[in-house]
Amino acid sequence: MKKIAIALGCLGGALPGAVIADTPELTVYTYDSFVSDWGPGPKIEAAFEESCGCDLNLVGIEDGAALLARVRLEGAHSEADVVLGIDTNLMAAAAETGLFAPHEVSAEYDLPIAWEDASFLPYDWGYFAFVHNEGFAAPGDFRALAESDTKIVIQDPRSSTPGLGLLYWVKSAYGDEAPAIWQGLSDNIVTVTKGWSEAYGLFLEGEADMVLSYTTSPAYHLIAEEDASKAAALFDEGHYMQVEVAGMLKGSDQPDLARQFLAFMVSDAAQSILPTTNWMYPAVTPEAGLPKGFETLTQPEKALFYTADEAEALRKPALDEWLTALSR
Amino acid sequence: MADRAQPVSGTPGLVAAFGVAAVILGTLLTVALRAEGGAGLFGPADWSALRFTLLQASLSALLSVGLAVPVARALARRRFRGRAALIGLMGAPFILPVIVGVLGLVTVFGRGGWISQILGQFGLPPLSIYGLHGVVLAHVFFNLPLATRLILQGWQEVPGERFRLAAQLGIEGWSMWRLIELPMLMRVVPGALAVVFALCLTSFAVALTLGGGPRATTIELAIYQAFTFDFDLGRAALLSLVQLVLTGVTAWVALRLGSGEGFGAGLDRAIRRWDGQGALRRGLDAGWIGLAALFLLLPLSAVVLAGLAGMIGLPGQVWRSAAISLAVAGASTVLVLIVALPMAIAAARGGRGRGGILARMVELSGLLGLAASPLVIGTGLFILMRPLTDPIAMALPVTALVNALMALPFALRILGPRARDVLAGEGRLGLSLGLTGGRFVRLVLWPRMRPQIGFAAGLTAALSMGDLGVIALFADPDTATLPLQIYRLMGAYRMESAAGAALLLLLLSLALFYIIDRGGRYHAEA
Fold first, then answer.
1. Do A209 and A315 share a domain, yes or no?
2. What would the pLDDT profile of B102-113 be if each residue is shown by its tens digit?
3. Which chain A residues have a beta carbon less than 8 Å from that of B48?
4. CB contact under 8 A, A193 and B210
5. In sequence order, what DSSP letters do the residues of A98-145 get, joined into one string?
6. Do B103 and A60 touch (CB under 8 A)?
7. Could you say which of A33, A79, A151 has the minimum Cβ distance to residue B390?
8. Does domain B11-520 sit in CATH 1.10.3720.10?
9. The pTM is what?
10. Does A6 fall in a domain?
11. How crowded is residue B438: how many other Cβ atoms within 10 Å of its Cβ?
């Protein structure tokens, strides 16, 4: 058994990315889709390593929630220098760990909201939206959706960050009326999935008219597949925002390099990579502007948003409301 | 009463069983000890999750095994061209990654699926697959093949001489059922029920996706939530313990029920059947085989059709992941055989009193792998390994180990009954000839158990290929297994490539299973 372990360890070690001695190493924990060959990871790594004289070690851990859990598990002795990929809905829990250090990086953000946070740096963002096929007469708000016989697939807020985002979307738009909205939606919901991929897959299989995703989702189909058949429904209440942030850990043995990486993440080089790899809006619009195709995307008139502390305080009550309304 | 002397020792098996139990319970304890603050209470939401979990797992187990009996009976009685290939293909759902299988099912049974489209032609409303019935349907799809194989194996382990004698005595139909088939089923069915039940108990993505909403919440989902969003390790450990206890109790009962006497030794002759020749019986058997094949193969063909386009021009990373997955599958298979064979022998030595309890403990520790939450094992191993080494560098060995733990219960179910028969039939002769220890294993056990060893090894390899396991907890960009790569492709909107990679996975798993299983039974009846 030990021999197998060693043999497999060698196999892992023999693959590209072996560390060269003396080069400082920066370890960044992020979610899995960031590091995948189709995500921003490889390009970000190449661009940063060009200038830093270091080895950037990206580690992918499932999704934002699992990522934060890993950081909490490792505590003060984490291998990570930087954590990238927590969203504002989990930021308060992250801050509460006391593991994050002030980053001292500033940038001219192009976010629909003002950003002031000493520990967390936003690198991209998006609006949640229901994506449908072009030509489908999508309802214009949640009430119209509840009254229609439109079928939707959503993600579970207990296992998925977009699912949690939808919870905040309804809550921020309707406040105390949120439970009634959920009850109205219950016959529109075909099913609730563990994560985004399952839901989007079901939608593409034709199981529902709309799926909870982002206003930027149609951009993927348009730009990468030259397929203009997907659109995002514009809701009159406004759209809830997801802001993805990065932060450096107090326990990092490479604080300067970590800061350099955070500054790089909001620089033009990184920001111009993100839109067509992570399919989100960049936090700072690159000098060359947004990629062609982004101008066709649905533009919400109102951005809905809870600060990290508001979101943390609302999570449990909103979740209970959701469970009660949909478990009937 | 003293236990009977046996030609092989049970000690290595006991050690292996202890090792397995230590990993499963040790990781649970590690997680519990790492918890900050008290364990969260078992609230009303947890009780309803528990009720739903038990309900869907019981229904799934009863239906999977209940349907598997007539299908296996038909397959055991009939010989036809392509039978071996059909049995192999029908096993495929079991080794599919969950998300791929679910999408295949939805293509056939979903609101926009094939059947709904046909119904639509006649002005009928679409099928609804979402709800308890959908969860059970999916679990039967995933587990009917396994149950069928386990029960079919029971039929094949009845010595050929018994059927020969039955034919000479004119025993057919009801008498055949009462004298041979029912006693055999009494031994095999409880174990099969326990395995499927335990497997469905830890279901999470299937139950949620096809369950249609939060009503379909299982304990495993609560464990996931406790781990990630709430980071309440005490609660995660508590819920995981509930799962282990449920499986433990069920398995204990099943193993007690299923411990009847075997049929004694035969001459290892190929089995030939003379019964069941009437037109009605042939028709019924053909019906069962046809229905099962249709139910299992339709969603599989949906997976194949969806994947064909994406197979062309699969990204290079997918091929590298396939190679990594093959290595992981190989390591898991070797691990399982090293552990399962001694455990099967230790369990087979059986006996009464203390020996019997020890034997059941061995089987039980093997079954625990099914009920253990991979999340708990992965996290526990992570905590344990951190002071010693970089856990991320150990991602592949840990994945191979966890995949082996998950496959072990199946290997034990396959090896156990046969080991018991061989020991019961040949043990005394071996002892009187002084044929003990390694020589007994090599000369008596090995040749008689080759088909079972091949089947167990093939199944483990295929399962390990398709299992996401714990790699998502540990992976770095360069060491993705094929199932993880499929999830990554889907996460990057590349559904067509993901479907292509899923087809590649299906083909590789089936080939691996076919080659290894075949290697074990090269001389056996087709």
1. yes
2. 889 999 999 989
3. 327
4. no
5. T-EE----------SS----SS-EEEEEEEEEEEEETT----SSHHHH
6. no
7. A79
8. yes
9. 0.87
10. no
11. 8
